[in-house]
Amino acid sequence: MNPRRPYHRKQAFDAGDVGFGITANQLSLGCDCLGHIHYFNGYRTDSKGNPVLLQNVICMHEQDNGLQLKHTNYRNNAATVARKRELVVQMICTVSNYEYVLAWIFDQAGNIEHEVRATGILSTMPIDNLDESNPVTVPWGTNVGPGVMAAYHQHLFSLRIDPAIDGHNNTLFYEESEALPVHKETNNFGMGYRATSTVMKKAGFADLNVMRNRIFKIRNDSQINAVSLKPVAYKIHAAPSQMLLMGPDSFARKRAAFAEHAMWVTKYQDDELYAAGEFTNQSRKDTGLSEWAARPDNVENTDIVVWHTFGLTHNPRPEDFPVMPAEQISVRLQPDGFFTKNPALDVPQSTQAFNQSTLHQEATTIASCCSSGKSHL
Ligand SMILES: [Cu+2]
Questions:
Q1: What is the Å distance from ligand 1's center to 324 Cα?
Q2: Would I find Oxidoreductase among this entry's keywords (predicted)?
Q3: In the listed set 272, 306, 340, which residue is the last one of a domain according to the structure?
């Protein structure tokens, strides 16, 4: 998003133009994942359509992510505690200067998280900032080194969700929370709030609304949860993000309509897999979501596809250079009345016999270096 020539031409579809398969790292033990690891191979096609084996492009491992649940009975101090153990399925793609680390993370409470990490090396341009008496800065970039400027830019991702919530006939809707009107009989103290639901009946798009806590959910109207008495559903913990900042007449905008709105819903069609259309290389207009979401399709209680646009408005920091600490962003799918109780209740309790934690020996160390032999603790 450097406004000067020739950078106005630099608008990459990292997945569509370059490809995350062809740039996938071949992973190895000890480098990218920790612990007990299984690797999956993959294939890409060469220019003649022949399969080319890519070894170890996907890794699967487990990781500990703190507590899954805990409660201490304050009357007798008895505690129930289970750790949050996650299954991580991960690939890493090197797209020229940048690395994208893409992971699906499954936990034992039914959550499915898609995490993106962006790391690697910033795209930089020369800047004449070497004369300390005449410092040069620009409003659309950050000086990250002597003579080196990194322009502001955005990374926008489209997460395609082809849901089957207890079957393929699903509905996308959003829930908003709002204060109940103060009313002598129903809300005399002004304390209450309620949730309203809006169904996406026709193919199209919608935006997020943090001030109304707008939460998108996918439900199956033919399957009623025995406890909540509402249709079974999964909610989408969207990643609230600024949409594309390029102007309406810019080619990037014409080529990437998906980057204008956070949530899209289309009726399922074979071969509609890529948000900006199948062939993005040197495309002049979007042949993806802008066309598919404009069809007057009913998307209520049918086979739908939900697309979530999220990303990073990345105004570089000097700390992002020369190699960038990973920026992390994630979208989580969470059961919402899909189960009848906490699905992690059968996770074994966390115990010292299993965890084998060890005690930090700080007191001993200090005592041993004290001439008096007394601990300062
Ligand atoms: Cu960036």
A1: 9
A2: yes
A3: 306
